[in-house]
Amino acid sequence: MVMRFEERRGRIIIHFLNRWRFEWVVEPRYWRNPMIATFLWICIPLLIPFTPSGVIGIGPMALLSTLILANVIAISALAHSFQTIGTGRVNFGPHFFVVTGGYVAALLNKSYGVDPIITFLSSFTITALIGLVLSPLTVIARGIYFTLITLILPSILHEFTYWRSDIFGAETGIPGIARLISTGSVIYDLYIYFYTSFIIVAIILLVIDKILRSRWGFILGVINEDEDVAISFGLNIGRIKMIVFTITSGVMGISGWFITHYYGSFTGTVWLEPWMLIFILLSSVLGGKGAIYGTVIGAYFIVLLREVLRSYLRETALLVLYIILLVLLYLLPEGLWGLYRRRRYREYMPSVRIRRKL
Amino acid sequence: MIELIYLTIIYTFIFGSLYLGIALGFSIITGILRVFHLAYPVLFLIVAYGTWLFWRDLGLTFILSIVLSFILIIILTPILYRFVISKFIDAEDYLLTALLLIFLSTEETINLIYPEWKGVYLPTLILPGTVNIGFAAVSGQLLITALISTIMVFFYVIFFVKTKIGLIMRAISQDYFASKMLGINFDVMFIIAMIAGSIPPGIIILLISPVWALNPFIGWTLFMFGLMVSVLGGLGNLKGTIIAAYIVGSIHAFIGFLIDPRLMNLASLIAVVLILVFKPKGLARAETIW
Amino acid sequence: MNPVSRKGLILIVVAIIIIAAGYLGYIYTVPKPTVAKPVKIAILTDFTLPVLKGQGEASILAIEDINKTGGILGRRVEYVWLNTMRKVDVAITAYRKALIEEGAKYVVLEGVSEEMLALMEEGTKLYSQYPHILMYVGMASEVSLKIINEYDKYKFAFRMFDVDYDANVRRPYDYFLHARDVLKVSKIAILIEDAAWTYGAREGFQATTKLGDVKQKPLRELAKELGLEVVYEAKIAVGEKNFVPILETIAARGAQYIFAMTSWYTDCVTLTKQWATSAAGDAYLALYGGPNHWTTFWDLTGGAALGVISGVYDIEDFPPVSPYTQSFIKKMHEKGLRVDMSAHYYYSLIYHIKAAIEKAGDPDNIDAVIKALEEVEFKGHTILLAPKVFLGEKSPIFHSYPAYVGFLFQFQGKDKVVNISDPNDPILLERYPKDLLGKYCHPELAKPPAELRKQAG
């Protein structure tokens, strides 16, 4: 029998081929809020055209474009968040992997006419391979050293893009890339881009959630809390960290892939600037420490905030944005997710604590 | 060719000393507080634009303006420590993010008040033109900068080796908990360390402003030099920082004069990363300030 | 609490999707009645960076001036400014907003090449529903190559500037000619910013287009053609701060003249300061683009600019190439803004649009305006007076201006920027009236940097 259902108290267990099992807790209190949130997440963008005069100063087109960018940031931020949980290190060069993925997609498509589906796989694979090469750093470089080494990586890539401007296009980037979608209607295209990126974010979110709720999540939590204890339990923490780093690097590359095929061009130097680091970092930090759902909320919040400020303020938009984010760091010690979590029973979620001992 | 080799040797000293001066404060703060001070670039900007503000906008004398800008740093440092560093000391991701935001906010603020076209400059040229050293004519201002930077480092080394406060700071950097047991007032020591680490960037920006651009965005570039040197040297270790500064200086001089100046930055970045792969904690043997 | 009805949930979701799809179909397919409207121009720029702010303000100034004289075809010109934050993703968002929500038919983009290339791609999607014209002032040969080779797809894009492979030959050539004939040098050093826009200047560039072949020689060959000896050539990294090895090597090789092909990506201020205090300080330093276009370059360098040669577009007695030239500079100064070369172009392009719209007869007929832009000979440019200024030359410079070759100035003191161009320069004589050149160009006033420093004490 391929699939078999088993009902137990409060849950349904689905067995696949008598080998794998999938548990779904039926009790509403566990899935009600996620379902409502997902429903709103899917449906609210559909209401945008009904607001032709704009929402909080942002017009419909700008709003849709902003939501798409929020998804792009969320993809990288989720991967970054999980990477931080899984390795116990804060990567200050996530945009290095985003740009690597972007360039892989751009070069393959522009030079060899490779289809976006294949460039998707290539971006993930090649970025993950680069992540694999760099992954020993998670073991040999502790704490701040890791942070600083990863901070240097984007600078190296930046130098490379200018040094080999014939390949990477330097400041002009690589234009003329095939788009993912082209229906002939701007609004339909934007919706398809939004829902495509939404699906990617949702899949990543689901996968990470499943991992964190499983035995592996518990293992990652132990590694995060105290590596010595984890070693004493017989865990090969080096291997686990390297695997997590490799895969999450590949996921960040997907972000770059999407940017390339969404805009139809890719200029890595723009995405290597500090603002991209801040957006990814703050999505995780402001979203809530170790809270992956909060990361998505954080990404949406920051990108929307920037767009609102851009619409209302002129020269001071960026300054006000930084100040607001700084103030929020003080006001929200648990992040945006903490506002919600305070009202809920706390399930076990690995917390992120970067040990000060170097 | 001989002349170029000669210049390479001389500029190894000059570049190395310059980068050492840039990295010195960052190394001290990291070594003692064990904090990655991402707002360090702000120090360059505060001294440079603070001096301009007091001098040109408020009409004070130039020397007084310089002094006041350093006093401004001394006033702001405990505030930064009290409200940012000590608040987030146990949440490193928050701390790093907060410091980065402070830096970016300061940069944007200065850009709004003093955009590039306002032509901010500081007349701190001490030795104009060139100085003949053997058969090479070397930039006078850079030579002075290198010499002053070297002297400054020497005084800091003396401070850490010979003075009581310096010894206390070394103790803190060697063993945090043991020092705590001895009853050291950490807050006071950290603030003193931060102030001590804030002086060198101020001096360096004043010295190099006749030979470097002065605009609101120079902080990050200078910081990257300092970061590279500090990371290579071993965070928070002055000996390692000194060695690393001259290694980076020699790479820049060698590549710049003898290979291709275009590759200076790339070469030093790659060299740093490669060395860190084999020595992840940098060149230093110990994780202490000295 | 009772379990939520899943069926009901699904029904609601489906209903919302149907309603939304229907509404979308209605609002985006039903033709709207045309109403006489003002001519709307969207200006996309970042106002925090001085050079980009100058570009935006220059266009706004032109719009205000045009409105004072009755607008275009009796219609008022309205502008909407949209912040790009100098980021591609924000620029695209602003572009969509400009066309779809603001209803702008003319989009003026800041001089950032990567944004232009990205917007051109976006524009191919938007054009069929939202006909418009997209303009910018900047480099990147791909912009022109795309327009020429895929005209139907990119016809809405115009580069209101000269193309790299044209300008980066003619302008440096004139610098070299001036170095040889006026400054009497024979040994030069060439420094080139290592970026995409200088590729042709570094390596040479060849391309086949539907309107002819492009063949660009590297700068060293241009210099050699004029009998100059290139004793040193180097690339400058974008954002480079350490020019000392370059300058010392230049001095060691005995160069008398340093030509630096720079733009706003190069730290010209640091280069100049280090040049002034280096062994190469006695060689002439000629800069191409960057803040050296401003008279405040003197202040930026703390006086180290003494002796630097550059195009300077900020002086109020700039040769009056057009009736607007000097008044434009004055008005920008009154607004507290500096003027570089691009600012002149951003001011002038608004007038060029005006001329094209007047020829086409209808600002809403974009195809007609595109055709008019390609045909009308524009005579109101504040600095460009090439043999014929129009955008329709059927050659590899199609949809771009012919190369600007302008005046060379030397910084000789605070508030003392002297025009040292040669009035007998054959390239300048092709472009400007002889009497204008005779009146404003004073090559006899050119002085070596060492002499200027000596005079300054």
List keywords for this structure.
heterotrimer, A: 358 residues, mainly alpha, ABC transporter involved in vitamin B12 uptake, BtuC, three-stranded antiparallel sheet, 3 strands, globular, C: 457 residues, alpha/beta, Rossmann fold, 2 domains, 18 helices, 43% helix
What do you see in this structure?
- The complex is a heterotrimer of chains A (358), B (290) and C (457).
- Chain A has 358 residues and is mostly helical.
- Chain A has a single domain, classed as Orthogonal Bundle (ABC transporter involved in vitamin B12 uptake, BtuC), CATH 1.10.3470.
- Helix content of chain A is 68%, strand content 5%.
- Mean pLDDT of chain A is 86; it is low at 347-351 and 353-358.
- With 290 residues, chain B is an all-alpha fold.
- Chain B has one domain (2-278): ABC transporter involved in vitamin B12 uptake, BtuC (Orthogonal Bundle), CATH 1.10.3470.
- A two-stranded antiparallel ribbon of chain B has the order 1-2.
- In chain B, helix 1 runs antiparallel to helix 10, helix 5 packs antiparallel against helix 8 and helix 9 (218-233) packs parallel to helix 11 (264-278).
- The model of chain C has no long low-confidence stretch (mean pLDDT 91).
- The chains are: A mainly alpha (358), B mainly alpha (290), C alpha/beta (457).
- Chains A and C meet through helix 1, helix 2, helix 6, helix 8 and helix 14 of A and helix 1, helix 3 and helix 4 of C.
| C-alpha termini separation of chain B | 39 Å
The dominant shape of chain B is globular
- Report the order of strands and helices of chain A: EEEHHHHHHHHHHHHHHHH
- Kindly state the number of beta strands of chain A: 3
Helix/strand/pairing category of chain A: mainly alpha
- Named CATH topology of chain B: ABC transporter involved in vitamin B12 uptake, BtuC
Residue fraction in strands of chain A: 5-15%
Return the average pLDDT of chain A rounded to an integer: 86
Q: Given this structure, which CATH class of chain A is correct?
A: Mainly Alpha
Largest interface (CB within 8 Å) is between: A-C, 55 and 51 residues
Number of helices of chain A: 16
- Total domain count of chain A: 1
Give the proportion of residues in helices of chain B: over 70%
> Which percent range describes the beta-strand content of chain B?
under 5%
Q: How far do the termini of chain A sit from each other? A: 54 Å
CATH class of chain B: Mainly Alpha
CATH architecture type of chain B: Orthogonal Bundle
Low-confidence stretches of chain A: 347-351, 353-358
Number of helices, where a helix is a run of at least 4 consecutive DSSP H or I residues of chain B: 11
